[in-house]
Amino acid sequence: MTGRGDEEAREASGRRARGELESDVLAALWAADGPQTARQVQDRLPGELAYTTVLTILSRLFDKGMLVRRREGRGYAYEPARDEASHTAQRMHSLLAGGSDREAVLARFVSELSEHDEHLLHQLLSGPSEAPAESKSPRGKR
Questions:
Q1: Tens of pLDDT along 31-71?
Q2: Which helix (H) or strand (E) is 69 found in, with range?
Q3: Which end of the chain is more exposed for a tag (fewer CB within 10 A), N or C?
Q4: Are 41 and 25 in contact (CB under 8 A)?
């Protein structure tokens, strides 16, 4: 998530932060039907990013273990190492682990859930047989 200050800084400079670019690239790959070349990813992204910028972001995400790649022609085709739901869950675990009061963080999180999300969480905690079908999407799409 970006804060208002980040949005203002982006508007003033016309540039996106590296973390935002990485998120945009991951979102483009999750939305794709299969592995994508750098050119295909570039075509899916908003704005006019340089091809070399897209290559750099793909390389960084690969180096972080967030993407897998296979040789395609003289370059590579990339796809996410994990689906979107797994990636988001891992980020949530990392944030929770980084807090000093796990109970307070969980209590605040639960208290701010929408009614729909609260109901969904109750279903998930009740057991796998009651989990709604929409949460089992293979690529984490909604």
A1: 999 999 999 999 999 989 999 999 999 999 999 999 999 99
A2: strand 67-72
A3: N
A4: yes
**What is the DSSP secondary structure assignment for residue 1, as one 8-state letter?**
-
Q: Give the chain's radius of gyration (CA, Å).
A: 18
- Whole-angstrom distance, CA of residue 81 vs CA of residue 33: 14
Q: Is the dihedral of CA 67, 139, 91, 20 positive or negative?
A: positive
> What does the block give as tokens for 131?
């989990």
Contacts of 91 (CB under 8 A, 6+ apart): none
**What is the pTM (predicted TM-score) of this model?**
0.68
Q: Is 77 helix (H, G, I), strand (E, B) or coil?
A: strand
C-beta separation of 92 from 105 below 8 A? no
The SS3 of residue 71 is strand
Q: Write the single-letter amino acid at 66.
A: M
Distances (CA, A) of 73 to 37, 51, 80, 142: 10, 17, 20, 32
| Under-50 pLDDT residues of the chain | 1-12, 130-131, 135-142
